[in-house]
Amino acid sequence: MVRFENVGLRYGMGPEVLKDVSFGIEPNSFQFLTGPSGAGKTTLMRLLFLSLKPTRGLITLFGRDVSALDPDEVAVLRRRIGIVFQDFRLLDHLTTYENVSLPLRVLGKEETAYRAEVTELLSWVGLGDRMHVLPPVLSGGEKQRAAIARALIGRPEFLLADEPTGNVDPTLARRLLRLFIELNKSGTSVLLATHDIALMDQYDARRLVIADGRLYVYD
Amino acid sequence: MTDAARPEKKPPAAAAGEAPRAKARALASIVPSATIAGRALVAVVAIMTFLAGLTIGTAVAVRGTASQWRSDVTQEVTIQVRAGDKQATDAQVQAAADIARKTPGIAGAHILTPEETGRLLEPWLGSGLELADLPIPRVVVLRLDGSGTADLARLKRTLTDRIPTATLDDHRGWSRRLVAVTDGVMLIGIVLLVLVGLATVLSVVFATRAAVATNRAVVEVLHFVGARDGFIAAQFQRHFLRIGAEGGVIGGVAAAAVFGILAALPRLGLGGDPELPTVLGWLNPGYLGFLGIALAVVGVALATALTSRFTVYRTLRTIQ
């Protein structure tokens, strides 16, 4: 599904932020991505959701060499990836319902075709009574759940989550972890970036540890 | 997300069947209209369309009037016979008319009587003047049959050979000057339209760039959820089409109103100057002019929308 071969990345003329990173992500797999702040986690995530291109090495995503993709092909590949950002990236002028349904709206679907699905998902993440309010009114945890719902609504094959439990209490963090595990069991590959050792200890999964720009894989 | 992945047990709030606290609304625009400098751009587009409408209307009116004048004068040719001895002049005039009548392509020849000549000269010499005391040239008006077969050069040679005091005036010099003036007005109109169009396009480019910059977060999120550039451009284009249409209609209606009022003034009895209807007639663009203004409105709206779309595409290439 995802393959990195000797990938290196530097910003401008600066030092390499990622060095010789090689790993693969298989279908239906679950892995944590962890490491100290500034080690290159966010950069690796940006490479995974095609926001950056490597300065050297090869990245293939769903069998495609990402360096050879045109903007439209990037858009089509991104539809197969769900992304949860650490800072949520919800649009403040759209309601929770509209934010969550955005990936379906982008596909050109009519609202009547997805209304029930979005409503069900929002109820499932506990935002059934908050679907018609704007994000500034939501708490941090509610925003996080809305961001997760938006990533899931398109039924992605690969879910990337950057610190998805960073803004929620331990109980909700456990619930969200269970959500990701359930999602993985239904066939979605999950990469969950986190600092939370306690959270990782709750589930026995592959760990990708990044330190000083190098990646170490613990299966 | 498959149904199997979703736990059967619903969260407490949803399970309790709580009603949503806020009411649903129609789907909001993905790009908020408040982030686009709409009012200012509507004003700019309205002014530009107004100027374009005035230019088109004036150009069409001038071209129409000039064309009418040319059509009128080129259907007639005149022979002038210099005044001399009255009897000899009468004979020369009659001879010139006879020669003209025998020329193919000439439908008729009319010798102006002294009274008719006097009426022609009234604007310059006043009325009640005794023309018999003045050496006024005699005029023969020839009416062409419209077939274009009249050989005027040959007629001119024949007249000069047989009646040395006669000259043929086919109005070509006047007509050429009129064509030059009309072409000049049309050229100025085209240059003005190009400048107005350029200014409109540049205004839209700057406004679109500002709108994309203001909505950069929206654009990034749209990219991350898999939106193609075409979808994103369409979100902006929708706003700019509305702005272009609104400004275009305001400017177009204002320009049409100016010509409408000018056309209505003589009928309303305004303006005591008897020449006023003639002067205002110059500025009547007719149906063609109003159609041109309507097309300008449509053109401005489409140009605004397409310019914004093209600009969004170009801007998106820099923020992939």
Structure commentary:
- The complex is a heterodimer of chains A (219) and B (320).
- By secondary structure, chain A is of the alpha/beta class.
- Helices cover 34% and strands 26% of the residues of chain A.
- Chain A is globular, with a radius of gyration of 17 Å.
- The relative contact order of chain A is 0.20.
- The mean pLDDT of chain A is 90.
- With 320 residues, chain B is α+β, with helices and mostly antiparallel strands.
- Helices cover 65% and strands 7% of the residues of chain B.
- In chain B, strands 2-3-1-4 form a four-stranded antiparallel β-sheet, covered by helices on one side.
- Chain B starts with 11 loop residues before the first helix and ends with a helix.
- Mean pLDDT of chain B is 81; it is low at 1-22.
- The chains are: A alpha/beta (219), B alpha+beta (320).
- The A-B interface holds A 49, 51, 71-72, 74-76, 78-79, 83, 85, 89, 91, 93-95, 97-98, 102-103, 105-108, 111, 120-121, 123-126, 128-133, 150, 152-156, 178, 182-183, 185-188 and B 1-2, 4-7, 10-14, 18-25, 27-28, 30, 32, 217-218, 220-229, 231, 316-317, 320.
